[in-house]
Write a structure and sequence with these properties.
Blueprint lengths: L2 H25 L10 E3 L2 E8 L7 E9 L10 E5 L7 E2 L1 E2 L5 E7 L5 E10 L2 E10 L4
Antiparallel strand pairs: 1-2, 2-3, 3-7, 4-5, 4-8, 6-7, 8-9
Length: 136
């Protein structure tokens, strides 16, 4: 075996080793929360938190409301709060794509039940999403 073949074998071994390491890292289970979607009328309602899992105190909550074929629902007002004693805060619509954002004080503890209020004309629905907070 000449020097060139030895170098090629070493480089290939290194490349395959790196691929194995990166593949293992990509497959690791993350600590993120998956929050189940809920339904209202023809709409699917999902929430995301930033960060995920959320920290005690202020966290950004993203509410995603989509109708048939993934289209946004029109004329919708989205508000949220972390418990009954807190006032409702209206989310800000992010474009016309069915995404609503708001930083919300979710309190502290191990978990919270986030309340999301959807209003469309005279119709109203309050949904409750259980959220596990990040360990402190």
């Amino acid at each position: 075996m000449n020097t060139t073949d030895a170098i090629m074998k070493r480089n290939l071994s290194l490349i395959f080793g790196l691929i194995a390491v990166f593949s293992t890292a990509c497959g690791e289970k993350s600590d993120t929360n998956t929050i189940a979607a809920q339904h209202w009328k023809d709409a699917d309602v999902r929430i995301e938190t930033h960060p995920n899992p959320p920290l005690a105190g202020m966290s950004e909550i993203v509410v995603i409301v989509t109708g048939p074929r993934g289209r946004p629902i029109q004329d919708l007002t989205v508000s949220m709060r972390a418990n009954e004693s807190m006032p409702w805060v209206q989310a800000i619509q992010d474009g016309l794509i069915g995404v609503y954002r708001r930083a919300v004080d979710i309190g502290d503890g191990e978990s919270v039940i986030l309340q999301v209020r959807l209003q469309q004309g005279s119709d109203e629905q309050i949904m409750r999403f259980p959220i596990k907070l990040a360990a402190s």
